[in-house]
TrEMBL record:
Transmembrane segments: 195-219
Entry coiled-coil feature ranges: none
Keywords for the protein's UniProt record, in alphabetical order: Membrane, Transmembrane, Transmembrane helix
Biased composition (Basic and acidic residues): 162-176
Keyword Glycoprotein: no
Region (Disordered): 162-188
Name of the protein in question: Acetyltransferase
Gene3D superfamilies on file: Hexapeptide repeat proteins (2.160.10.10)
Amino acid sequence: MNVFRNLGAVSLGDEAFIGNWNQITAAPAYQKYHREAGRLFLADGAGVVNRHYLDCSGSVRIGRMSMIGGIRSIIQSHELDLYDNATSIGTIDIGEYVFTGTAVLVLKGARIPDRTVVAAGATWTELDDDASPGLYAGTPARRLKAIDDAAWMTREHVHTPVTGKDDSFMTEHERPVQQPADAAAKPTRRRRRFLGVRTIGCCVAVALLFGLGVAAASATQWRTDDALRVQTWDFTPVHQGLAGLTVIDRNRNLSGVAIGDSGLGHGAARAPDAAVYLQREFASPVGRIGASVDFGRSGSGSVALVLPARGLPSAPARFDSDFPNAGVHLVVNARTWEMSVWERSFGQRTLASGSFDPVLVGILSIDVTRRRDTVHIALPDGRMESVSDSRIGSYSGRYAVWELFENNAGDVGATLTRIWAAD
């Protein structure tokens, strides 16, 4: 059982979970002034275990495969300014493959880098955006060492398996418990029961949200349908290449698309409207598309997530005249976002847009889920947006397209670290 109170929206990615006895609240007054206030976003595989307190008066984003572990941690996204006698909210951004131990305090404005461990009892304040991955401890938290060889940081499954090996617990007089002959099958059954308990806990939480009125009536919960078959391409640190992707390059950059240490990108633009497209065809209409992206220090490049009605023309010369209708054409850069449909006879028709304050830095994720004529957009600053239009469904087809785009000559493009899509 969990308590949710006054949240504007809760979003759970694939296999994301919230355990039991957590208190997740927001001060509703801020939602009158800020559309992004009162938001909690858990990316794919992210988790909040048991007995924690999350203040989501601002917005809290927990990245892919990250875990609020231990017990009794506090995530606090608003604060009091004693000098101005005023309170304010902010964003807390917890990166990918992050683990926080027992009784950790994370304060407004905190950005925890990917593949980081925050030791028990630490206090994470607003650190600079160039903080390196590693082990952090103390008040305020300071980096102690790198943890590059930790297997937890590269795991593929959400839950860490239980083992009987613990040399500090065993004594010379103790022996391991004898397992029955069919023990190999039991962990699977035990895990299913464990997941069932979590499912029941989530159902009770939803009942509290809507049946007892603990949460705001306007709260929305988005979760990707488990039936979706997500395909992922990871370009760092050990990339799998471009298998299954078609690359279409407009040949307006100083160098073509390549995968380097930091991800997939291409050279600076040598002409306006420089672009490269990665395309994947699915068996049925695409229902989800996303990317993890680093806009770099210049922030001059853009990324577009596109769901076209058919495949893109293979010849760049035909792009201006033969670019197909697209039900989703989401363009994001370090400063702004714009959700449009693309009509072959007209071009871009904007349905919704906005800006980021502060400007985006670091590796951040963008995720779009389409349900018929509506898209739910998880923006990289933690905001959630929903957009509906009949053309979203009618113009979307079996193709997913990721675009790196630069408006002007000399612009330095963004870098893709990971992309994904599902039909």
